[in-house]
Design a protein that fits this description.
single chain, alpha/beta, 3-stranded mixed beta sheet, about 50% helix, globular
């Protein structure tokens, strides 16, 4: 599974690409571990100045691979998905997301931790946690109300509404919208090189100042969310919703993604 995360480093830019298009870039435990390992390594590598996270020109990520998720659910705070969250939130270098197409569940919540988010018009951002008997993750319960206000955050986290690329920009979840994936990916690369042209120590210290005031609160929220997420997975509500979704996916012979 580790080959499903492509990594390319060029001129100081590390591009991490989720490369599982036949499953709409649904994430397995092995893929979470690989992404986390690459991010931890990037933080220690002086030749890496900026990281781009993408799923390629057609789909960002449909969330958890449902079969893998149900066979190996998170059971402790060092589970693979939670390890990725730790790698992202502790990253000391700028992180750019190029979101082309669907970004479901963690595919959306990861964007809350990126310094810049570029999207295509056909992007679909959705967090169906409550719909599946679960709770928000990746600090979304803290960050989304602060970013959007309580009412808009509730539309996304409680009702599970989705946003397209233009709406994501209008709501403040993304910076720029593009007509297609090629434009979005090219713009992400240009933006990365703009950041690389900045004085690097000043850039990283400024980024740290922007994040450090809320870091302790974020880490406490992550812990609370993750523990509750584990608990919710064992609830009758979640078991019923997830098994129903798995059955629908099997009946339609579709990729078993679209999960938080």
């Amino acid at each position: 599974m580790t080959d499903l995360i492509k990594h390319e480093q060029r001129d100081g830019v590390l591009t991490l690409t989720i490369d599982r298009p036949d499953k709409l870039n649904a994430l397995t435990n092995a893929m979470y571990m690989r992404l986390a390992d690459l991010l931890f390594a990037a933080d220690e590598d002086d030749s890496v100045g900026v990281v781009i996270l993408t799923g390629g020109p057609s789909c960002f990520s449909s969330g958890n691979d449902l079969v893998d998720f149900l066979q190996q659910p998170p059971t402790h705070l060092d589970s693979p998905a939670f390890r990725l969250m730790r790698a992202v939130t502790h990253l000391q270098k700028p992180l750019i997301a190029a979101v082309c197409g669907a970004a479901i569940g963690i595919g959306t919540t990861v964007l809350l931790h990126c310094d810049q988010v570029l999207v295509t018009r056909n992007a679909k951002l959705r967090m169906p946690f409550v719909n599946l008997g679960l709770c928000p993750e990746f600090g979304a319960s803290l960050l989304l109300p602060r970013l959007l206000g309580q009412a808009r955050a509730a539309r996304l986290l409680l009702l599970g509404d989705s946003l397209d690329g233009s709406e994501a920009v209008a709501w403040g979840l993304a910076n720029e919208v593009f007509d297609d994936g090629a434009q979005c990916l090219a713009a992400a690369t240009r933006l990365a090189h703009r950041l690389l042209a900045m004085p690097q120590q000043a850039l990283r210290q400024s980024r740290q100042l922007m994040k450090q005031a809320s870091m302790a609160e974020l880490q406490a929220t992550l812990r609370e969310e993750n523990l509750l997420f584990i608990e919710r997975l064992n609830s009758d509500e979640a078991k019923t919703a997830l098994n129903a979704l798995l059955n629908r996916s099997t009946d339609k012979h579709s990729p078993k993604g679209n999960q938080p």
